[in-house]
Request: fold
Amino acid sequence: MQIQPGAIDEAVAQRFGAQVEWLIALAGFKSTRGNEGPCQEWLAAEFAARGWAVDKFTIDIDSISHLPGFSPVVDADYTKAVQLVATHDVAEPAGKSLILQGHIDVVPTGAPELWARDPFTPTVIDGFLHGRGTADMKAGVSAMVFALDALRSLGAVPASRIHIESVSEEECTGNGALSTLARGYRADAAFIPESMGHRLIRAELGSIWFRLRILGRPGHILAGSSDGGHAILAATRYIEALAALTATINAEARSHPWFGPITNPVKFNPGKIRGGDWLGSVPSWCELECRLSVLPGHKLEDVRDRVSQAIRDCAEALDADVPTIAWIGFQADGHVFQPGTEAEALLAQIHEAVMGAPLDPFVMTATSDTRLYDLYYGIPTLCYGGHGTGLHAPSEAVDLHSLEKTTAIIARFIAGWCGLKSV
Ligand SMILES: [Zn+2]
Reply:
């Protein structure tokens, strides 16, 4: 069956108030790592109420640890890492199959003093919904669900199979998305509506996470200490060494075919530090956790070798024992999403019709789940969504007008990709 695009937009608009209420409920869940369960349970009930078959499962490390794209798991209890795949299946498909994927894990809120209001009491102010996880990316999840609701309100469902996936672990490993692939979920295309400002990710950086455990030569402070003997001061020197390595990689990146035009695309983030036990003692230990970007085309193994070498060189200069290095989360490849796919052509056409301007592909200096589908499983994957601000910051918010447009764009995409049939 055919439905006029304008009718789809109208159906989205009619339900948009309900969509915002739904998003407020979803963003009210404090679904940080290890706490995703209640949020996923709520979503499972929402999916089941729509008549979709719901597969709810936890990540089985043994079934993914041998797969490309796997990232090591540290400090996490995967018996709580609930993943959801809801399926609308069609006996005799008339169109192409689709995966709609969103992640509901959110990053920690950080210092509470920096938040103007409670991070998990989402609040609408001047057309933006504020709160942790609103833009990254529960708004996108609401767009997936309400795009299908809008079509159904017009008496239509997709004319081919569609999986609606809600995963976790996007912010630290990608193992949630990987576990859905290991479980056998495939489609002719995948669509991830991250808040990308109505742009399409053309290329993204990978990243590696690692932890240094630095040991000092402890003693009474009266004896004094060199930087190398002082675990916390040594940590500052390792940070400097890794920042210098990053500068070297960024100098090389100037000739990268995709990231060359961007100034310093590779980011080094010393993101977490702890150490020492007693103010009267030279600290005996310090643990430093870091993230470093990986350019598409650069092998993870090579980047890890360069990190290890920089640490060894710094330890030698400090006359200190070489810290142990643990690879503790993301070991994610960078990736370029090749232009010219049928899915991109369809999105470009719909985007232009709705937004009144051509689709703008861009290279992103961060990591998303998108690579897992496209790079390792050959599923052409679009990462495209509306406008958000303050991702990972206390100012996180999503532009609701833009969210309504995104929902309409996804509904039109489903209609064009999967085809429609009567309920
Ligand atoms: Zn995200």
Remarks:
- The first helix runs from residue 5 to 27.
